[in-house]
Amino acid sequence: MNARMLIMNMGSTSTKVAVYNGEEMVWKKTIDHPREDISRYLKYMDQCEYRKEKILELVRENGEKMESFDVFVSRGGTIRPIPGGIFKICKQMLEDSQCGLYGDHPCNLGGQIAYDWAQQYDREALTVDPEICGELCEEAIFSGLPGIERLGSFHNLNQRAIARKYAIDSGIPYDSLNLIIAHMGGGTSVAAHAKGKVIDVNNALAGDGPFALERSGGLPVGSLIELCYSGCYSKEEMKRIVNGRGGVYAYLGTTDGREISKRIEERDQKTELVVRAMAYQIAKEIGALSAVFRGKVDAILFTAGLAHWDYFVNLIKERVEFIAPVHVYPGEDEMESLAKGTYRALIGKELRQDYVEGVEKIERSRIVNRDTSWFWHPAKK
């Protein structure tokens, strides 16, 4: 079966666009958005029309017509916890992704744009392995404060693609492996994959966990509270600082890997220390997840952009390779994963799931969600 798909993947400073015909890629391009352009927008969703027009320009430049596509596909957004799989993009999914309760990320833009075009051209809008996963073990959900849950908000699509790739390479089914996977790029997520399910992971898309190129990571709570109430920043500005303008960018004023590497080669001590600190925090997160498996880890996998940088990879590897063998899968396979997942749904090999039903399935499975007393909050009288 041939089915033409327009696939979109929004990053903080780029938009990846691809056209697939069935499982065959027709073309793939990346639109780079100058920081001076996107810095004008306080919220990611404010960029919707800007990004939509850039995609339309690219599609026309490549001789495509919007009505020729059978399905519009986007990387999933920051929604309510659901299982992994293929989901139909619906109004409720969009409302949840944009309400701010589950994080703010540019991938929310893609869901809205895919839905808009699906409505306009009477087509389907789908997403694969959305960014918030509801498979966390219940112990991992507790934050330490009633009323605040830990979310599995991370690079779910790429992490599962790399897990499946390693499973093929090792000859062991994904659902038989215990893996720790570190996605290291603009944001960093480190996840425990236990027999095909993600049972623990830092809330990477909201800035939790190790600091990254553009995200602050977990911050000292007291100091963060003081900063929030300092009167210097609005709520939206604080969100943008920790998720988009934090991490390496906040320390060094750049996220350009070539520039950072050059500074290290020139013996810039501050740059080297910041990079070593980032590697240290990732290694520490991996070590913490090894306790989730009681030390029984089959492999540790590194992926995404920073996995191309041998210097950085080795800084982490020397601290964690005693836990399990380390394997490196540089870059990301998100566009291909979106295409293959969508194609599996179109040919009937995997079911399209309903978002609302997926949310209800997760909520029914959790004691925390069934008992409202868990949500008592000390601030409430």
How does this structure look, described?
The chain is α/β, with parallel strands linked by helices and about 375 residues long. It folds into two domains: about 1-155 and about 335-380, 2-Layer Sandwich (Nucleotidyltransferase, domain 5), CATH 3.30.420.40; about 170-330, ATPase, nucleotide binding domain (Nucleotidyltransferase, domain 5), CATH 3.30.420. It contains 15 helices and 14 strands. The strands form three sheets. It has a seven-stranded mixed beta sheet with strand order 3-2-1-4-6-5-14. A five-stranded mixed beta sheet has the order 11-10-9-12-13, sandwiched between helices. Helix 3 runs antiparallel to helix 4 (about 105-120) and helix 11 (about 270-290) crosses helix 12. The radius of gyration is 20 Å and the shape is globular. About 40% of the residues are buried. Mean pLDDT is about 90; it is low at about 370-380.
Name the features:
single chain, Nucleotidyltransferase, domain 5, disordered C terminus, five-stranded mixed β-sheet, 19% strand, 14 strands, alpha/beta, 381 residues, seven-stranded mixed β-sheet
* Helical amount: 40-55%
Strand content: 15-25%
Oligomer: single chain
Q: What is the rounded Rg?
A: 20 Å
Helical region count?
15
Task: Give the N-to-C terminal Cα separation.
Answer: 60 Å
* Outline: globular
The tally of strands reads 14
Number of domains: 2
Strand numbers in spatial order across the main sheet: 3-2-1-4-6-5-14
